[in-house]
Amino acid sequence: MSVADETGGRAERIRAKAEEMRETAERTSDPQERQRLRDKARRLQERSDQVTTKGDHGTNVL
What we know:
This protein has helices at 3-27, 31-55. By secondary structure, it is mainly alpha-helical. The radius of gyration is 14 Å and the shape is elongated.
């Protein structure tokens, strides 16, 4: 497995976790918990973007 494949797989797992958090947030009735989950999902998505960019050796243009 190449480094790019590893990085892509890691980024995909992080994105999946972020999506799961967003879905959980939408089902949560407590407004504070919903916001906490949305914030965590946003941070995970940002992390996924960083992993993807690093995996491309910084060639992604955002």
